[in-house]
Amino acid sequence: MNAKMIVPFGDPVLRKKSRPVEAVTGKVLGWLDQLGSTLYAEEGRAGLAAPQIGVLRRIFVMDCGDGLTEWINPVITEASGQQEGPEACLSYPGYAGIVRRAQKITVETLNRQGEKVTLEAEGYTARCIQHEIDHLDGILYIDRIVDDQFYNERTGKKADLLHVLRIANG
């Protein structure tokens, strides 16, 4: 399946809340396949949410090093602890920022067969899940940057967060 174009910051679709999936249909499976193809189109990608390919549904895919996982209607049911670390986004490549997230989470989601699954994650994987769920709610990682710690990934130099927020908000 062909990779889709990733929606860039500034596109209003990234600020919209996604609708739940009513049933796992062929269309939903097709979106999951498109998300997976797009995620793997380039190395180094960890996660991709449906709004990033222009689909306002509560689905995302992720590979934080343990293979592809697919998430349908994910809900964080428990969160504990705290971590801070760098995050970036495929919708605004080349930049990253320090973000505060829960250290450990429990998530209820549906799998490809439409079965409810409960998963626990911590550390980097928990960070990725929270980042992608934020996308489903129209929240971008730049909204959560700690102490204006936003920088160019290539140079490591501080970047203008206010400018990027203006772009991201259309």
What would your notes on this structure say?
With 170 residues, this protein is of the alpha+beta class. The protein has one domain (12-168): Peptide deformylase (Peptide Deformylase, Alpha-Beta Complex), CATH 3.90.45. Helix content is 21%, strand content 32%. The chain has three helices and eight strands. The strands form two sheets. The chain has a five-stranded antiparallel β-sheet. A three-stranded antiparallel β-sheet has the order 4-5-8. The radius of gyration is 15 Å and the shape is globular. The mean pLDDT is 94.
Shape: globular
Q: Sheet with the most strands?
A: 5 strands, antiparallel
Task: Give the termini separation.
Answer: 31 Å
In CATH, what is the class? Answer: Alpha Beta
Number of strands: 8
Poorly predicted sequence stretches spanning 5 or more consecutive residues: none
- And the CATH topology? Peptide Deformylase
The structural domain count equals 1
pLDDT averaged residue by residue: 94
Helix residue percentage: 10-25%
Assigned CATH superfamily: Peptide deformylase
**Order of secondary-structure elements:** HEEEEEEEHEH
Strand percent estimate: 25-35%
Radius of gyration: 15 Å
- Give the helix tally: 3
Strand order of the largest sheet: 1-2-3-6-7
Keywords:
170 residues, alpha+beta, Peptide Deformylase, 5-stranded antiparallel beta sheet, 3-stranded antiparallel beta sheet
Q: In brief, what are we looking at here?
A:
This protein has one domain (12-168): Peptide deformylase (Peptide Deformylase), CATH 3.90.45. 21% of the residues lie in helices and 32% in strands. It contains 3 helices and 8 strands.
